[in-house]
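We were asked to recover a plausible sequence for a given structure. The inputs and outputs are reproduced exactly as logged, with field labels preserved.

PROBLEM: sequence recovery
POSITIONS: 234
GIVEN STRUCTURE:
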């Protein structure tokens, strides 16, 4: 196995490893002893899910989140510089995409260290694939403003970009505020604008539907406390 910083995708929910991750990923994981992770507990659970026989206590974990300083992140790469492969694990989906893992990847690139992204589920890509929207030009905006006036302004701006730039617009919300987000979309967007709601992607209860804003009214699914991506298009 080549020495590198391996970006290790994880499942998007309580999905079997075999359903969404190639067996090659497990081979790579078994050769790594140093992991940079968003959450140590969930990373340990994921690794046990990949290989029940893995010796978790022999592994070293480095926490990487919004509170980690650039100095700490840079120091995390010492094993890689010394010739030992390292892995980056996100909380869900692909590391470094809408994820703090991007910070350590940027440092690795500046230091001219080899970075290897492995195949796995990305809710952003999968939702674009299933939406029927423009897959050649799309933008992910993360979380929208919470303040009602700012959120309304942002939704209208994203909708306008969908029309003027022919570009799919994606964003997310904290799961317990999903229904408030849908209400705001229905209130602020044009009746003919298309909205795709993609929830629990790759899970057994996956829900992905595209309708015009006017057609969603009175036909909303129960999205309480589940991860969703919202997509707007003309």
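RECOVERED SEQUENCE:
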């Amino acid at each position: 196995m080549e020495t590198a910083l391996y970006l290790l995708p994880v499942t998007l929910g309580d999905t079997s490893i075999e359903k969404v991750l190639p067996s090659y990923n497990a081979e790579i994981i078994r050769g790594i002893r140093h992991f940079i992770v968003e959450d140590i507990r969930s990373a340990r659970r994921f690794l046990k899910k990949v290989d029940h026989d893995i010796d978790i206590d022999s592994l070293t974990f480095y926490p990487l989140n919004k509170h980690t300083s650039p100095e700490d992140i840079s120091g995390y790469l010492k094993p890689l510089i010394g010739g030992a492969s390292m892995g980056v694990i996100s909380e869900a989906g692909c590391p470094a995409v809408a994820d703090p893992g991007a910070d350590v990847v940027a440092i690795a690139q500046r230091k001219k260290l080899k970075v290897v992204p492995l195949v796995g589920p990305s809710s952003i890509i999968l939702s674009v694939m299933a939406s029927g929207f423009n897959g050649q030009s799309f933008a992910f905006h993360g979380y929208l403003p919470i303040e009602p006036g700012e959120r309304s302004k942002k939704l209208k701006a994203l909708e306008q970009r969908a029309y003027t730039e022919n570009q799919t617009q994606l964003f997310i919300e904290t799961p317990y505020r999903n229904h408030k987000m849908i209400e705001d979309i229905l209130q602020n967007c044009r009746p003919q604008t298309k909205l795709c709601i993609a929830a629990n992607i790759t899970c057994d209860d996956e829900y992905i539907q595209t309708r015009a804003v006017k057609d969603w009214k009175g036909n909303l699914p129960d999205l309480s406390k589940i991860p969703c991506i919202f997509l707007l298009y003309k």
